[in-house]
Write a structure and sequence with these properties.
This protein is an alpha/beta fold and about 210 residues long. The protein is built from seven helices and ten strands.
Length: about 210
């Protein structure tokens, strides 16, 4: 079973799209947790989506502490984090529910007004498709990879040494830590996540 944690910081104007993509899945996740890390722009969502569990913080914890706290609240076998500015393809959970490995990665469709940033940085793994960019992630981590909750809790989120001030690379640190623990990895060669690059995106390092 899969829990999806939706993380928001100044994404309140986009978050409904993300939540709707989870509620309309061909196979529903076991649980949806939504966290606003102190921006204060998501309270209106509670009345719209009573089936979602909300954590609305009064103060900003920062990416690492926020993610770690939310991970500790998960009790399903698998978990994935999704930025509230992004969304999942409607069959993503159904496909990922077939997981046999400790970690499952998959490809990404990069969209949004600032989508050109990604192919400039990763030209070898991106290609244009339908006006967006298809980003292949075989053998590579990303922030919305599916992973076993128990293994994630064992390793934990932390800032990667030397990471950019506005990008702690906590997902990279988690990925490396899980691999060091001998985690098995599989890859779904399909674009299951729509990753939106936009003017309010928290990650400013690219």
């Amino acid at each position: 079973m899969i829990t999806v944690v939706v993380a928001s910081y100044r994404y309140g104007h986009l978050a409904s799209h993300c939540i709707e993509s989870l509620l309309s899945q061909s196979r529903a996740p076991e649980r949806i947790l939504f966290v606003d890390d102190g921006a204060g722009d998501c309270a209106f969502l509670q009345a719209l989506y009573p089936e979602v569990e909300f954590v609305l913080r009064d103060q900003n914890l920062g990416v690492v502490a926020n993610f770690q706290d939310m991970l500790e609240r998960v009790n399903s076998e698998y978990v994935m984090f999704v930025g509230a500015d992004n969304w999942l393809r409607s069959d993503a959970i159904e496909i990922l529910s077939q997981a046999q490995s400790d970690i499952v990665t998959y490809n990404i469709v990069v969209t949004g007004e600032l989508k050109d940033h990604i192919p400039r940085r990763y030209p070898e793994s991106t290609q244009p498709v339908h006006g967006d960019f298809y980003w292949r992630r075989a053998g590579q981590h990303h922030g919305s990879m599916l992973y076993k909750t128990s293994l994630g809790k064992k390793v934990g989120y932390a800032r990667r040494p030397g990471a950019h001030a506005n990008h702690p690379e906590e997902d990279w640190n988690l990925w490396n830590g899980m691999l060091a623990e001998g985690a098995s990895v599989s890859h779904v060669d399909q674009g299951l996540l729509y990753y939106r690059r936009h003017r309010e995106n928290f990650l400013k390092s690219y």
